[in-house]
């Protein structure tokens, strides 16, 4: 019998009989409010902030809210199985943790704590290139869990080659290449505070420990850390890449490659033509292009274009179990969770991340059941009503 994630809510109620209530809110909005009070202004602005006037981040939420679920009745949902096949892997639920760089700014346990939480819940964690902890150390904390690595595909081919070699040696099997951040977006909350974690050497650990990166420095990192940070800023992204350049990555990575940040169906077709295995329909949580299409509005068009050729994943705005359901109905195979788990980490370390995962999946399990589905596979666009406002 498959695990019933919904049982988490009964666990909470039962614990309540002995006077215990959850340490963190079970509602993502209240979780975010709590984080707003606990995180310092710099880290909070960096995590919660987005590009320009913030309209893309708001549109992400609105596009999901506009779609309403139309539950079906009398369909025997007593036994449910949330597992899905993603890139040839069986996941216990259609969920992975999105790559989020520099998270030691919210909690000193940082990526290893997230890795342990994800492994404990069986959910893949996509480790960011901009991790505060070298990838080998995070891999060690992942145990037997799925290891996915996100690449910032930068200017220096030797560094890219070295990252791919290290990731492979550390047991990462899926490569997620982020396309939407060759340059950092315009982010007023960070600009107003002149706050960027990288300036303090946070999020540079994979680079500073990398032999190819170090070979490009005139002095060792500890002798001239500022020069090392500037070197990192100069090479982390490369806005000159074009589609044929993907051949380099295909040549150096023999596992699945997923392109993150695809919003246009034509780009999704190009990804398939380039021999990629999947795309993440994402606008980076509204952090890159202010005024960009909401990710949930882009999703059905991308799924219609390449759903039969590529694995379509989704992020940007997922906060609740109902959002996961809606993303599947719009054509995603699974979703990536971003900011909410960072708030869980900031508030309570590894248990905080586990709490966020368990709440989300309990709500997803209940949404699925109460909408008439025993498995994610049967959810389709027919389960949604699009409200006019
Ligand atoms: C603080 C922060 C750092 C991020 N760092 C990365 C990163 O290193 N690599 C990456 O591909 N995406 C990064 N992202 C984007 C996330 O992977 C994801 O696309 C986004 O958080 C989804 O939006 P949501 O959090 O609003 O759901 C970051 C997002 C945040 C909030
Ligand atoms: C200057 C390095 C930029 C890395 C961007 C990290 C990220 O994806 C985000 O902040 O969003």
UniProtKB/TrEMBL annotation:
Keywords: Flavoprotein, FMN, Oxidoreductase. GO terms for molecular function: FMN binding; oxidoreductase activity, acting on CH-OH group of donors. Its cofactor is FMN. PROSITE patterns: FMN_HYDROXY_ACID_DH_1, FMN_HYDROXY_ACID_DH_2. Residues 20-389 form the FMN hydroxy acid dehydrogenase domain. InterPro entries: Aldolase_TIM, Alpha-hydoxy_acid_DH_FMN, FMN-dep_DH, FMN_HAD, FMN_hydac_DH_AS, LMO_FMN. Glyoxylate binds at residues 46, 152, 187, 260, 284, 287. FMN binds at residues 99-101, 128, 150, 178, 282, 315-319, 338-339. Gene3D superfamilies: Aldolase class I (3.20.20.70). The active site is at residue 284. Belongs to the FMN-dependent alpha-hydroxy acid dehydrogenase family. This is Alpha-hydroxy-acid oxidizing enzyme.
């Amino acid at each position: 019998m498959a695990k019933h994630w919904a049982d988490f809510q009964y666990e909470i109620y039962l614990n309540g009989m002995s006077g215990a209530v959850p340490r963190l809110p079970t509602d993502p909005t209240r979780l975010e409010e709590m984080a707003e009070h606990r995180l310092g202004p710099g880290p909070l602005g960096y995590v919660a902030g987005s590009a320009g006037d913030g309209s893309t981040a708001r549109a992400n939420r609105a596009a999901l809210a506009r779609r309403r679920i139309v539950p079906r009745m009398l369909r025997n949902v007593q036994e449910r199985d949330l597992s899905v096949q993603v890139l040839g892997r069986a996941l216990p639920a259609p969920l992975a943790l999105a790559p989020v760089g520099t998270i030691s700014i919210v909690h000193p346990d940082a990526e290893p704590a997230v890795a342990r939480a994800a492994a404990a819940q069986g959910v893949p964690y996509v480790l960011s290139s901009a991790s505060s902890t070298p990838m080998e150390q995070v891999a060690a904390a992942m145990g037997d869990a799925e290891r996915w690595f996100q690449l910032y595909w930068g200017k220096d081919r030797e560094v890219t080659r070295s990252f791919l070699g290290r990731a492979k040696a550390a047991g990462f099997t899926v490569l997620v290449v982020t396309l939407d951040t060759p340059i950092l977006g315009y982010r007023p909350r960070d600009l107003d505070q002149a706050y960027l974690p990288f300036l303090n050497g946070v999020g540079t650990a994979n680079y500073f420990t990398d032999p190819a990166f170090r070979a490009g420095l005139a002095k060792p990192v500890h002798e001239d850390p500022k020069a090392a940070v500037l070197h990192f800023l100069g090479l982390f992204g490369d806005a000159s890449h074009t589609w044929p350049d993907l051949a380099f990555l295909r040549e150096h990575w023999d596992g699945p490659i997923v392109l993150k940040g695809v919003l246009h169906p034509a780009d999704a077709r190009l990804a398939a033509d380039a021999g990629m295995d999947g795309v993440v329909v994402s606008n980076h949580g509204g952090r890159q292009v202010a005024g960009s299409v909401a990710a949930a509005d882009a999703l059905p068009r991308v799924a219609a274009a390449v759903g039969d050729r590529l694995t379509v994943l989704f992020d940007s705005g997922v906060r609740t179990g109902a959002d996961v359901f809606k993303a599947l109905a719009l054509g995603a195979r699974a979703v990536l969770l971003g900011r909410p788990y960072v708030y869980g980490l900031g508030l309570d370390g590894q248990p905080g991340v586990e709490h966020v995962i368990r709440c989300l999946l309990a709500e997803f399990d209940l949404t699925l059941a109460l909408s008439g589905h025993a498995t994610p596979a049967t959810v389709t666009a027919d389960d949604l009503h699009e409200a006019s406002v």
